Automatic annotation (TrEMBL):
Biased composition (Polar residues): 413-423
Keywords in alphabetical order: Repeat, WD repeat
Single GO BP term: mRNA 3'-end processing
Ranges where the record places region Disordered: 410-491
Basic and acidic residues bias spans: 464-478
InterPro entries attached to this UniProt entry: Pfs2-like (IPR045245), WD40/YVTN_repeat-like_dom_sf (IPR015943), WD40_PAC1 (IPR020472), WD40_repeat_dom_sf (IPR036322), WD40_rpt (IPR001680)
Organism listed in the record: Chloropicon roscoffensis
Protein name according to UniProt: WD40 repeat domain-containing protein
Length: 491
């Protein structure tokens, strides 16, 4: 058998940090069904947590939160998302990591992270539950959960139970091992669009396309109150994180606030001009974010019962929205065109964008409990994972989608460091891309700020005609550096 021809990769640039290996040709005579190894990306947050633990003693005395360095070496000092409390821009998850699809492809309607974030659970149009690994994103298991399409998934706040709603109006209880514990087949007359638990987990609310919201006793599985008042399909429901207050959004362009104990409507929030597709409470309990078919997002402050801000930037209907678990003023939205946009509450324009993140509507979004990964699902039959850009990543590296490898990625010089001693106010890791320099900044001639000579082989074109430096033993004795130290200049 002939030996295979292999393309060897040569490092033409000594400062090349990342490069794509050439494809290895299969030797003649081997079966064509053999496939090469897949370089699977892994997002392990353990290193960042250990780094935080090692620096805890020093960081607890610092008044300001740590900042990301906008250079590749800054990845060595990367901390968990919760550590950047005053810089939420450090957690714009715009970098594509992995796409996961079932063997039998079907639209994915809902997703939720398991307790601890070790796995991601998705619910499909075929009624199947699929578990994906939360670190390397590979397939783990699949079960036929129900006969109808899964429309929503939600864990209890104590993370001991899982509740799902289907397309036929049924509600199911599941254990953490995905064993069905209870089923309410006729919970609603139409599809269940949302489920949300009370702070104590004793009650939960469900919304449906039958224009009603129902408050349930979780242990008994019985309805306590039926909240009627919407003039159309109820698209979402959310229970306040600390109080007895339920919010719901509907096709009638209104958000209603309900008293779940009395079963009465307390207030109406107006602002949208079309169907409101989604809403979610902020973890501080003061803000509600909503998005609809009018292509705008709105944040309402329930303390003043007024609209706080309006956000425009989506080109199509807004189908999903999600707050960051550790940054109270950061949220992300998904559109009908597959775009994913990141927002900060004080700013009306999107702060980061992933256009065409999916081929069709983004139906569900969920942050990892650590906040370093965002998972999205869509009707394009895929589940995608998005991570934080590495410090110093170029724009092309951040927004590429299905490419497993990238042709010859080089170091990008941050714009803030391109001038000597100048630093501009740029978001760490999100600056524009620049071509790879022929030599690193500051090494074209004498190193700035030091007394050391330039290193051999790193001279720029203007330095090639300079007189070569004398060797130590060829110097005059008076010019030699003193023993036990270095002189400020050797030539």
């Amino acid at each position: 058998m002939e030996s295979g021809n292999f393309n060897t990769y040569r490092h033409n640039n000594p400062y090349q940090m990342v490069a794509r290996p050439h494809v290895i040709r299969q030797p003649k005579g081997l079966d064509d069904t053999l496939h090469g190894a897949v370089n699977r990306r892994i997002l392990d947050y353990t290193g960042t947590v250990i780094k935080q633990m090692l620096e805890y003693e020093r960081c607890q005395f610092e008044e300001e939160s740590p900042l990301l360095k906008a250079v590749p070496v800054g990845a060595l000092d990367l901390l968990p998302a919760m550590s950047y409390g005053e810089t939420p821009a450090s957690n714009f998850n715009t970098k594509f990591v992995h796409v996961s699809t079932n063997k039998i492809k079907c639209p994915v309607n809902a997703l939720v992270w398991t307790p601890g974030g070790r796995r991601l659970l998705t619910g499909c149009q075929s009624g199947e539950f699929t578990l994906w690994n939360g670190m390397c994103f590979n397939f783990e298991t699949i079960i036929q959960a129900q006969q109808r399409a899964v429309r929503c998934l939600r864990y209890t706040r104590n993370e001991n139970w899982l509740v799902s709603g289907d397309d036929g109006g049924g509600i199911q209880y599941w254990t953490t091992t995905l064993n069905k514990a209870k089923q309410i087949p006729d919970a609603h007359r139409e599809a269940v669009t949302g489920v949300s638990f009370s702070p104590s987990d004793f009650k939960f609310a469900s919304s449906s396309d039958d224009t009603t919201v129902k408050v349930w006793d979780f242990a008994a599985g019985k309805v306590e109150h039926q909240l009627s008042g919407h003039g159309g399909d109820v698209k979402g429901v959310g229970w306040h994180p600390t109080k007895a207050l339920v919010a719901s959004c509907s096709k009638d362009s209104m958000i209603k606030l309900w008293d779940p104990k009395a079963g009465k409507c307390l207030a109406n929030l107006h602002g949208h001009k079309s169907t409101i597709m989604c809403l979610e409470w902020n973890k501080n309990g003061n803000w509600i974010v909503s998005g609809g078919r009018d292509q705008v997002l709105k944040v309402f402050d329930i303390r003043t019962m007024k609209q706080l801000q309006t956000y425009k930037g989506q080109n199509r209907d807004i189908t999903s929205v999600c707050w960051h678990p550790h940054h109270a003023d950061l949220f992300v939205s998904g559109g009908y065109d597959g775009s994913i946009l990141y927002w900060l509450v004080p700013n009306a324009s999107p702060q980061a964008e992933v256009r065409n993140g999916h081929e069709t509507a983004v139906r569900g979004m969920a942050w990892h409990p650590m906040g370093h990964v965002l998972a999205t699902c869509s009707h394009d039959n895929s589940t995608k994972f998005w991570g934080r850009p590495r410090p110093g990543d170029t724009h092309r590296e951040r927004v590429r989608l299905e490419e497993t490898y990238m042709p010859t990625v080089g170091l990008s010089v941050p714009q803030s460091l391109s001038h000597s001693g100048a630093r501009s106010s740029v978001i760490p890791g999100l600056e524009g891309s620049r071509p790879l320099p022929s030599t690193p900044p500051g090494l074209g001639g004498q190193m700035r700020g030091t007394g050391y000579p330039q290193q051999p082989g790193l001279q720029g074109p203007a330095d090639q005609n300079k007189r070569p430096r004398e060797r130590f033993f060829d110097m005059d004795r008076s010019k030699r550096p003193r023993q036990g130290g270095r002189s400020s200049r050797w030539d």
